[in-house]
């Protein structure tokens, strides 16, 4: 089951760059499939934007931390 972790950045400069950090932690999942899906969504979003269709997609970086 995914776990959403969120915390506030107390740096005075945080109002300009990421005042809140959020990450999703998944244990026991193979994130390679998640990476592929996110890459496909980013590709589709760029194609749509080139054709003046902005679907306002929000993607997130995926970082596998293990071998599984």
TrEMBL record:
One of its GO terms (cellular component) is cytoplasm. SUPFAM superfamilies: Protein kinase-like (PK-like). One of its GO terms (biological process) is phosphatidylinositol-mediated signaling. Keywords: Kinase, Transferase. InterPro entries: Kinase-like_dom_sf (IPR011009), PI3/4_kinase (IPR015433), PI3/4_kinase_cat_dom (IPR000403), PI3/4_kinase_CS (IPR018936). GO terms for molecular function: 1-phosphatidylinositol-3-kinase activity; 1-phosphatidylinositol-4-phosphate 3-kinase activity. Residues 1-68 form the PI3K/PI4K catalytic domain. This is PI3K/PI4K catalytic domain-containing protein. It comes from Teladorsagia circumcincta.
């Amino acid at each position: 089951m995914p776990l959403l972790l969120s915390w506030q950045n107390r740096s005075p400069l945080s109002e300009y760059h990421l005042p809140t950090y959020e990450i999703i932690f998944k244990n026991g999942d193979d994130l390679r499939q998640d990476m592929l899906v996110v890459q496909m969504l980013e590709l589709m979003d760029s194609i749509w934007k080139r054709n003046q269709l902005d679907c306002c997609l929000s993607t997130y970086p995926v970082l596998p931390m293990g071998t599984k």
